[in-house]
Structures are given as C-alpha cells and as structure tokens.
Amino acid sequence: MTRTIELKGEPKLGPMFAKAVVTGSKRKGRTLPDLEVVRRDVTPSVADVADYDAVCGFALSNRVPSTYLHVLVFPLQVALMSDPGFPFALMGSVHLENTIRQHRPVLLGETLELRARVENLRPHFRGAQADLVGEAYVDGELVWEDRSSYLFRGAKVDGEVPPKVDEPDAIDGFGATWRLAGDLGRRYAKVSGDVNPIHMNPLAAKALGFPTTIVHGMWSKARMLGALENRLPDAYEVNVAFKKPVLIPSTVRFIAQSAGGPGSFDLALRNAKKGTEHARGTIRPL
C-alpha cells in the first residue's frame, strides 16, 4: 500500500542536504519505498518566476517555464530521497537524464497540486539507477510530467547490468556561444533552491571527484529551452541527457537543428573550445 507524505509548506533544501551528508553512509537497502510525496495549493510567485527567467534566459511572460515546474517539484523529490525508507545516499547521486512532458502551458496565477514518487529501479554498470517522477495538476487535470533518472554510484541491486550501447555522436555545427561565469552555480541555486554544494563550493566539488564546481544540469536544460522559447508548441516533450559535467567558469556552444516538423528540434551543448559533448536532447510536439 502506498504511503503518502503530505507537505504543508515548501521544504527547505539546505537542511535536507546537510542531513544527507550525515546519514548517507548508513543507507544500505536494495528496494524502493512505495511512497508518494504531495504538496497542494502551490501558486508560483510572479517575482520568483521572473528571477528564474533572468538566470535561465526566458522572456518575461504569463507562462510558467516548464523547467520551473521542475524547480517546484524537486524539493518533493529530495524529501522522498531523504525519507528513512529510501535505500540510497542522496549526496553523490548523479542526475543522468530528464524528460518533461508539458500537456499545456501553465499560467501565472494557476494553483497547482504537485506529486512525486520513485520507480523503475535497475542496475547500472556504475551502481543503481532509478527514476524520480514528478507531476503537476490544475483542478485535477494533469498538465505537466517530469522524469529524472538518477545514478546512485556503488549501490547494489538485483538484476543484470545492461550492456553499454554505442551512441551516435550528437549534432554539431554553428550555434550560440554562452560564457558561463564562475558564480552561475550560486545564482541558479538562489532561484531554484538546489543548494547541492558541488555547484557552489569548489572544495565540495573536489571531494566528489570534480576539479571545480559544475553547472546544475537543469540550468543547462532550461537555458537550451529558453533559447527556443518562441518556437515551442503549447504541448511538447523535451528530453535532455547529461553527458559530461560543465565546469564553471567556462564557455559552451549551443546547437539546435530542426528535426523535420514544426516544433521538433535536436539539441546539443558542447564545450566551445574542445567540442566535448556536455548534453544532448530532443524536443517533440505532443
């Protein structure tokens, strides 16, 4: 039977991340909890959305960016991963991929019900992988869905590790050049609430194997989506796989190519000098 945690207010991510540092090594389970986290009566703040737009490159409008809805549901996902029944450590987890399905635009002033759960546990050659699922409803109508695949490094679960699949190279070509300042992690953390220290503190990043701080994957996705905002359909699916962390400061190149129909694009984010693939994605109308 599904256990439900209903949050009466916005959970504070800072204390949850701090607790995760202390309790992470104690988690040794192999199964996912049958748990759902719910938060009702959430109305996005106009000022908060405007601040997010400024950091992520969206134009000001009465539409809430689909990636901002991820910002709203992310604290529920962290609350779920912080629950004693969750088997893996939050700190050190790696966000591999995110898929958003926007069924219709969400407008400023609309009141949302947010839900989060975890499913699809499977082995990965570097540990275990699971999907954090988020949903947003307006008056009972499902308007938005979000699926984030996370790797929990070193974890052991039942099943066979799937073979590695050779992927074709992501698209390349001319594109927009973005220079990312060293404080980008802190600025995005301020508007998103994602205060994971690997994005803000070089020492914390080095402790987890990175040479310096790295960009939030969801900033990269939001910035790519913002660059195409005026060409997006009302209903679409956008998938982005995060391939190699973006160190900050750095300079990246964003490439978008038409995929054959209105509102369909293939995307890539590459290092501006080396051409290294940081992220690849697709946008398709629903």
Write the layout of secondary structure elements.
Blueprint: E1 3-7, H1 13-23, E2 35-42, H2 46-56, E3 63-64, H3 66-82, E4 94-102, E5 106-107, E6 112-124, E7 127-138, E8 141-153, E9 176-180, H4 184-192, H5 202-207, H6 217-227, E10 236-242, E11 250-258, E12 265-271, E13 277-285
Features of this protein?
single chain, 286 residues, alpha+beta, eleven-stranded mixed β-sheet, two-stranded antiparallel ribbon, 6 helices, 13 strands, 23% helix, 35% strand
Folded structure, characterized:
α1 packs across α3. The chain has an 11-stranded mixed sheet, covered by helices on one side. The chain starts with a strand and ends with a strand. The protein is α+β, with helices and mostly antiparallel strands. It contains 6 helices and 13 strands. The protein is globular and about 50 Å long. The mean pLDDT is 92. β12 and β13 form a beta hairpin.
What is the first-to-last residue Cα distance? 33 Å
For the largest beta-sheet, the strand count, sense and barrel status come to: 11 strands, mixed
Which value, in Å, is the CA radius of gyration? 18 Å
Shape: globular
β-sheet strand percentage: 35-45%
Uncertain segments of ≥5 residues (pLDDT<50)? none
* Helix percentage: 10-25%
The whole-number mean of residue pLDDT values reads 92
Strand count: 13
Number of helices: 6
H-E order:
EHEHEHEEEEEEHHHEEEE
* Biggest sheet strand line-up: 1-2-6-7-8-4-10-13-12-11-9
SS content category: alpha+beta
